[in-house]
Amino acid sequence: MTDLRNYALVTGAYWGFTLTDGALRMLVLLHFHELGYSATQIAFLFLLYEFFGVITNLIGGWIGSHMGLKVTLFSGLALQIFALFSLGLLAPGWPPLFSVCYVMGLQALSGIAKDLTKMSSKSAIKVLVPPEADSALFKWVAVLTGSKNALKGAGFFLGGLLLSVVGFRAALWLMAAGLALVLLAIFFSLPREIGRAKNKIKFSAIFSKSRDINLLSAARLFLFGSRDIWFVVGLPVFLSARLDWNHTEVSAYLALWVIGYGGVQALAPGLLKTALHGATPRGGTASLGAFGLAALTALIAICVEIGLSPWLTVVAGLSLFGLIFAVNSSVHSYLILAYSEADHAALNVGFYYMANAAGRLLGTLLSGIVFQFAGLVGCLWVSTLFVLIAGGISLFLPRDQVAMFQS
Fold it and tell me: What radius of gyration, in Å, describes the C-alpha atoms of the chain?
């Protein structure tokens, strides 16, 4: 009963954070696009967000193992509150270069906050689920990840709506106040010792020595890079500039995309149960999903290139991309915990999400650059290449059994 209560607390905190994180991304993207910034300039606003996610995941897992996941979760929420409040101080009269540097710096803090919160929440599941309960682990991971992404989608919509209704500054301060309530609940309710390793772990252990975790992390890098190459800047700018959608319409579509993606993630255990004959996912599941995704992305790129309706190719095609990507992402999220011992969960999850953040960093940078020079079609072809690489790496993961625990 205590484990269920702690799972609810961790999940609730992750939900609250994710709602503000999605809204913040949409607020910054639409606000600066409205001010006349180019796709590449907007992409640079998010670079430090992704870069510091790489560093945070690498070190955060070690900190969580030493000090407990409550410390890292609390720190992530507190940093996000500070970033939201400080972004609200941004003034229109500031010099453009100073404004960009100011936003990039606070986005860096938000990136640290996001990955501290994500690492803490997902590591806590491994600690709370009983050993050898593989099916329960897959289900709990899928529910947390799926619900998180559904709420991130809701956050996209919330960001666009708040920007239209109350403006940039008021939206940020309202979110900071709401997240402060979540912070108080965690501070007084979650046990301090959750996730703390029983034995002292050397700092050098942050670099995983497990072949399977290294391979899975590399595949994750290219998988998430493939999505962000077209999703971060290319798609919203395409919808706004090419299809003439307004802020609310763009944010609503992105919101529905992520909500649908999250919903499929949460349902992934049931969807895969028949296909896997009741077994849990293996490396072959990840590679098959990646190759299927690559074929779909290439098909969308070809259809856009020959001039078919953007409603059919981009809007509908990328919605289908989200469904397949969601299942593959859920498989990855399960495998990293299946490959880890409970005592090393925070360390391995931190390393794995370091690779995830590196993929997002690369995808974010390429999203602006490739879109500016080759349009959305160029983004889709680079995305296809990335998913093929992810599938190729996944071929080397264990195919008939869960990897042996290594640290």
Answer: 20
Residues 139, 269 contacting (CB under 8 angstroms)? yes
Buried b / exposed e along 198-216 (16+ C-beta atoms within 10 A):
eeebeeebbebebebbbbb
In tens, the pLDDT along 6-28 reads 777 777 888 888 888 888 888 88
Q: Dump pLDDT digits (tens) for 304-331.
A: 888 888 888 888 898 899 889 988 988 8
Q: Is residue 268 part of a domain?
A: yes
- Residues 156/26, Cβ–Cβ less than 8 Å: yes
Please state the domain count of the chain: 1
Residue 316 is given by DSSP the state: I
What letter does residue 315 receive in the DSSP assignment?
A: I
Q: Considering all CA atoms of the chain, what is the largest pairwise distance in Å, rounded to the nearest integer? A: 62
Q: Left (φ > 0), alpha (ψ -120 to 50) or beta: where does 254 sit?
A: alpha
In a domain, 178, yes or no: yes
Confidence (pTM): 0.72
Q: Compute the Cα dihedral for 204, 210, 216, 219 and give only its sign.
A: positive
* Measured distance CA(303)–CA(298) in Å, rounded: 9
Q: Please state, in angstroms and rounded to a whole number, the distance separating the CA atoms of residues 360 and 167.
A: 28
In this structure, the number of other CB atoms found within 10 A of the CB of residue 169 comes to 13
CA distance 114 to 48: 12
Q: Which two tokens stand for residue 406?
A: 């290594």
* Secondary structure (H, E, C), 271-314: HHHHHCCCCCCCHHHHHHHHHHHHHHHHHHHHHHHCCCCHHHHH
Q: Cβ of 165: how many Cβ atoms within 10 Å?
A: 10
Question: Does 348 have pLDDT greater than 80?
Answer: no
| Percentage above 90 pLDDT, the chain | 19
Using a 10 angstrom Cβ sphere, with 0-12 exposed, 13-18 middle and 19 or more buried, the burial of residue 141 is: buried
Q: What is the CATH number of the domain that holds 153?
A: 1.20.1250.20
Asked whether residue 326 is domain-assigned, the answer is yes
Dihedral sign computed on CA atoms, order 305, 310, 314, 316: negative
Q: Residue 125 sits in which domain range?
A: 2-394
Contact 253, 236 (CB under 8 A): no
